[in-house]
Amino acid sequence: xxxxxxxxxxxxxxxxxxxxxxxxxxxxxxxxxxxxxxxxxxxxxxxxxxxxxxxxxxxxxxxxxxxxxxxxxxxxxxxxxxxxxxxxxxxxxxxxxxxxxxxxxxxxxxxxxxxxxxxxxxxxxxxxxxxxxxxxxxxxxxxxxxxxxxxxxxxxxxxxxxxxxxxxxxxxxxxxxxxxxxxxxxxxxxxxxxxxxxxxxxxxxxxxxxxxxxxxxxxxxxxxxxxxxxxxxxxxxxxxxxxxxxxxxxxxxxxxxxxxxxxxxxxxxxxxxxxxxxxxxxxxxxxxxxxxxxxxxxxxxxxxxxxxxxxxxxxxxxxxxxxxxxxxxxxxxxxxxxxxxxxxxxxxxxxxxxxxxx
Length: 358
Ligand code: NAD
Fold this sequence. Notes:
The protein is α+β, with helices and mostly antiparallel strands. The chain is 39% helix and 18% strand. Among the domains are: 2-70 and 333-351, Hypothetical Oxidoreductase Yiak, Chain: A, domain 1; 78-192 and 236-282, 2-Layer Sandwich (Ribosomal Protein S8, Chain: A, domain 1), CATH 3.30.1370.60. It is built from eleven helices and 15 strands. Strand 3 (78-82) and strand 4 (86-90) form a beta hairpin. 47% of the residues are buried. Residues 51, 53-54, 126-131, 148, 150, 169, 171, 185-189, 194, 197, 275, 317, 319-320, 322-323 line the site of nicotinamide-adenine-dinucleotide (NAD).
């Protein structure tokens, strides 16, 4: 199912149809079939979760990067260091969706063998929605946390007290399995807004909320285009000095520790979007026991959600619950894509010989 809104030019498209179309674009751009499906699946799953900034909107950038040789199709992880519970892999500038998935499969094996595992990834292409990696581990019964940085191209965020771009959006994620239910997944950028969300507003012709972005002269702005001007603007970290401090440690734990570089316009990978990630995964059975973990998590969920809502029709949501709600709604009614974003995706597809879905 695909429907066009004649007034806005936007479309609403069923997840399966969108996956098939996007996979065909990546195949035409040089990916083997399995890789094209993995990348398409990850992007459409991000749309289903409501994170349009990390969904199919990325298709046109990824295709540009492939054409420029900045992302290399059909690359896989290379193990650099392996001491059992500690593994360092190089992503060889392959699609982050493939590199992340392969690295998380290694992490799950090691965490189950040793009770915990630390995985350091360097030189991956864009790792997309980081919550996906916590979900992959939770599906194996593992708790995990993840720190991510961008070593060169993705420098976007002003440090607390500063007025220009020095740090990356540096997301972090954490996830736990929940017996009998969906995993709980915290998945946040340390910038006050993810850069992709500024792109979404620019594509829709809408303004930013105040207090998110500085223009190239270091003045607050609500114009998405001011962020992309020359000189470019900067995004604030969330929570002032707290988000800024967390972001700094994402740089260190993901970038400096892996050998993939902290935010650095002079790094060898500057000019291409490179994600590095530190993942630490735990098997609850190896710590306080699987049964205790499960019961205590359920108790905590009930206790937390029982807080009386501050808004008359409000509710306490746990990490990942909003995404679950949007996922079930969009699985039923389709994924909305604004006209400008859809146009750019179609142009990217046509540039590699793939026509838009009818
Ligand atoms: P966000 O601000 O939408 O926050 C999402 C998190 O907050 C989720 O865990 C969600 O369940 C929780 N949440 C949302 N509303 C809630 C509520 N009312 N109550 C309780 N919890 C709530 O996310 P973001 O910071 O804009 O990040 C968006 C996406 O961008 C993420 O998937 C992130 O991984 C991705 N990202 C990736 C990169 C990269 O380099 N690969 C960089 C930046 C961001």
